[in-house]
Structures are given as structure tokens and as C-alpha cells.
Specification:
By secondary structure, the chain is of the alpha/beta class. The chain has a single domain (4-216), classed as Rossmann fold, CATH 3.40.50. It is built from six helices and eight strands, in the order βββαβαβαββαβαα. The protein has helices spanning 60-66, 90-103, 118-129, 173-184, 202-206, 209-216; strands spanning 4-10, 15-21, 37-43, 74-79, 106-116, 136-140, 159-164, 189-194. The protein has an eight-stranded mixed β-sheet with strand order 1-2-4-3-5-6-7-8, sandwiched between helices. The protein is globular. It starts with a strand and ends with a helix.
Length: 220
């Protein structure tokens, strides 16, 4: 990989993959701003849970980095423990974020959260719990396991949600109802529905350069 160097680190509760921009370790590369690099946190789906980090690379941004995706950002891809769920791992995720902020040159105004399926639910939920942290959210085929009105608390955060119209695993209404609530609250929300897509609405999303252009244009 020409620009991204992959490494593995471990917190007390979560294993994760960390992708650093090439040259980060020896300071040969200047950060995009004086405050440091943007941070992207990617939450995988239910099928990648466990203790084998190679599973995290099966889909999403972690897979794209393995394939050679070049982005000028730090990317953390944690692995959810087996038989757990991102929505009940918020304490561990908060610990991971604190660990990253303490140990890496991160621009705290440009922290982004995205995830697919179970990770899409995690994106909505953690984003709601940490409204003061994320510059943008990008949930894919996700939802929110709490009453829809709660989502209006995210009205000031840029969100771009994605879903397949024919998704048999997570029904389209799981996100469309959240989007409608945010639209009614004048939220900063975009919603892309792929008419022919089933559950895999993430491949086309993470392969689209416009997704990264939008993401990195957001800041707190």
C-alpha cells in the first residue's frame, strides 16, 4: 500500500486495525492542519465480530484500505467482541476514542463515524451519545433501537445515510423514518437509497470518491 500503513493495536476491551497516513511515524509528512489529521472510525457488521482482525477487512473502509485506498486521514476499525453488539459497547468505544486522542496527532474538530449494518446502528447510537464529538455521521443500512423522536437531537450534525431499497435484513424504513424525523427538524441530513440494492449498500458507497469528498469537507 503506497499511502496507508496498516498496523494492529489492542485496548483493554477492543482489538482494532489502525491505518496511518504514510510518513506519519517519522514526521516526514505534514498534517493537513496544525491541529493534526482527521480521524475516521469505521464500525463493521455483525458477521465480522470475534477475535480475528482479518474479518474486519472483509467489508467497508477497512477492506478498501487493504485494497489500496488512499486518504489523508487516520482510520480506526475496531472489532466488536463475539456475541456482543456495537450499541452495548459504547463504553469500550469511548475508551478507544480517548486512547486514540491521547496517543495520536488528531484534529478533534474532524472526527468522523461511519459503519454498516450492525455498525450502522452503532453509528446512529454512538453519534447520539457523543453529539459533541463527531463532525459527521455516515450510517449504512442501519437504524436506531430507540424511539424515533430521539434522533432529532442530531439535527445539527451533518449526516449522510445510505440504504438498499430491497434490503431483506434491515428494512428501508429503519432509516427512512429517522431521515424523515430529521428532515422535519430541519436537520443537516442526506439520504441515498439504491433502488436495486439489497443488504449490501456499502460496497458502492465506500467506492464512491464523492463520499470521501463530502466526509472530509465537514468539521465542527
Amino acid at each position: 500500500m503506497s499511502q496507508i500503513e496498516m498496523c494492529v493495536e489492542v485496548t483493554s476491551r477492543l482489538n482494532y486495525l489502525l491505518a496511518l497516513p504514510k510518513g506519519y511515524e517519522d514526521n516526514k509528512k505534514r498534517a493537513p492542519s496544525d491541529d493534526g489529521w482527521p480521524l475516521v472510525i469505521f464500525l463493521h457488521g455483525a458477521g465480522e465480530r470475534g477475535d480475528d482482525l482479518d474479518q474486519v477487512k472483509k467489508h467497508g473502509i477497512a477492506k478498501r484500505l487493504e485494497e489500496g485506498l488512499q486518504i489523508d486521514a487516520i482510520v480506526a476499525s475496531p472489532q466488536c467482541p463475539a456475541d456482543s453488539w456495537w450499541t452495548i459497547e459504547l463504553g469500550a468505544l469511548n475508551g478507544l476514542l480517548d486512547h486514540l486522542l491521547a496517543g495520536y496527532r488528531i484534529d478533534a474538530s474532524r472526527i468522523y463515524l461511519t459503519g454498516l449494518s450492525m455498525g450502522g446502528f452503532g453509528t446512529w447510537t454512538w453519534g447520539l451519545a457523543r453529539q459533541d464529538t463527531f463532525a459527521a455521521l455516515a450510517p449504512i443500512c442501519g437504524g436506531l433501537a430507540m424511539p424515533t423522536p430521539f434522533v432529532t437531537q442530531l439535527a445539527t450534525i451533518p449526516i449522510w445515510a445510505f440504504h438498499g431499497a430491497k434490503d431483506p435484513v434491515v428494512p428501508l424504513r429503519s432509516q427512512s423514518e429517522l431521515v424523515e424525523a430529521l428532515q422535519a427538524a430541519d436537520g443537516n441530513i442526506r439520504f441515498t437509497v439504491y433502488p436495486e440494492a439489497e443488504h449490501d449498500s456499502w460496497t458502492v458507497t465506500y467506492e464512491d470518491p464523492r463520499f470521501y469528498e463530502w466526509l472530509f469537507a465537514q468539521s465542527r
